[in-house]
Amino acid sequence: MHGIRRRQEREPTQDELQQAKQRVDRYRALNSHIMDLKAKSVFTKDSLDATKRLLEQNTELHTVWNYRRTIFTSLDEWQSQDARQQMLDGELKFLLDIITKNIKSYWMWNHRMWALSSLPRPEWQRELALVAKLLALDARNYHGWDYRRFVVAQLKDAATDKHAVDIQEFAFTTEQINHDCANHSAWHNRSKLLPEILAQRDEDGQLQALQAENDLILNAIYTDPDDQNAWLYYDWLLDIQKSDADRCRLLRNKIAMIRELLELEEDSKRPLIELVSAYAELERLQSGSVLETEKKECLETLRRLEGIDPYRVGRYTDMSRTLSKQWALAA
């Protein structure tokens, strides 16, 4: 695809086919053996070892993960704090070995949460550093981000200065967005943190924080005007404002930002759409705030979009009719 010649795959030899069949047969036999052990409620170290060997081959077996947890909690050693610590430390190392094989395995991340939560003496700060390294391998992995929120929540529960934890995590999202502005998970995590940070500031501090958000969004949009993440975040930022006056102020900032961008990329599709949408929302919130010349400019922009993006002519025509009716203008 995209001009890259497809690599010709050679036919496997008979020996390779036979070896593959043997691997499948061994896998099926082990899976059947474990299901039999589970049915008989066998909770021993041997059954624990058997589940480990199977999960090393396939991390998506949620029934086996569940069985493995039951085995752990059924062993006599589980009742000893020191023995449990040792067992689960080993479990975390096992999970770290297999995590790079399938970093998007929901069941594996779920099991790691259980293991950390069951540890008598968990090291949450070390776990936070570890998940940062894992996200460096796959920065947009939402499983990893979800797990990171879990770890941060534990740190925050134990912290005397909970606000400092939010600030540190907020800085991490800034770092990730500056590295890759299309990282939806980082934007999403930021949206969870910003309300907490704003709640700790006075009015001037909130305005400064919102201006910083505006600058971050502007940088992301300049980097890739057609990427949806920064635009979606701006819409969310509008939604959390306390008053329509605050929303109108942000909309005016957004319009000014888009105009600045269009001076460099006058036919960029997404900014043109956002410009029309911003004016429409501004007029809805504050009737009469959009000038007649600006309304006519919106209709002209929609006509331009029909030529720039002919596959969506129907959408732009419908938007033009709707705005013309609302604003009592000729389309």
Low-confidence stretches: none
- Please trace the helix and strand order, writing H or E for each element: HHHHHHHHHHHHHHH
Q: Which structural class do you get from the secondary structure elements?
A: mainly alpha
* Shape field: elongated
Main beta-sheet annotation: none
Helix content: over 70%
State mean pLDDT (0 to 100 scale). 92
- Total of DSSP H or I helical runs spanning 4+ residues: 15
Instruction: Note the beta-strand portion.
Output: under 5%
**N/C terminus separation:** 42 Å
Counting DSSP E segments of at least 2 residues, the number of strands comes to: 0
Q: Tell me the radius of gyration.
A: 27 Å
Q: Characterize the quaternary organization of these chains.
A: single chain
Summarize it.
The chain is mainly alpha-helical and 331 residues long. Helices cover 75% and strands 0% of the residues.
Task: Describe what you observe in this structure.
The protein is an all-alpha fold. Helix content is 75%, strand content 0%. Helix 1 (14-39) packs antiparallel against helix 2, helix 9 (184-199) packs parallel to helix 11 (228-239) and helix 13 (269-285) packs antiparallel against helix 14. The model has no long low-confidence stretch (mean pLDDT 92).
